[in-house]
């Protein structure tokens, strides 16, 4: 079985996660998961959560990002970032595996 490489998490995403944890007084990980659905077939589910035993754990300055083993292949070579735009501030995923995505950037197809 080939090794699946985890996504890259930007310093900006780790910094925002640290800010969120500081504001809430908690120390949660950012969970990035893939679910079926959305207008393009799959959608990203980004939540604050506790790491599970089988998660891939990515640690950076200020935080932890976790990805379950089922979602990991969909996120290979992707970049998890944080952006602030006119439509709002949010975590975003630049996924080279996606063949198409919707305008909101939340759902994609492969």
Automatic annotation (TrEMBL):
Domain annotation Core: ranges: 8-105
InterPro entries assigned: ATAP, ATAP_core_dom, FeS_cluster_insertion_CS, HesB-like_dom_sf
Gene3D superfamilies listed in its UniProt record: HesB-like domain
Single GO term (MF): iron ion binding
SUPFAM superfamilies membership: HesB-like domain
GO BP field: iron-sulfur cluster assembly
Protein name per UniProt: Iron-sulfur cluster assembly accessory protein
Species name: Celeribacter persicus
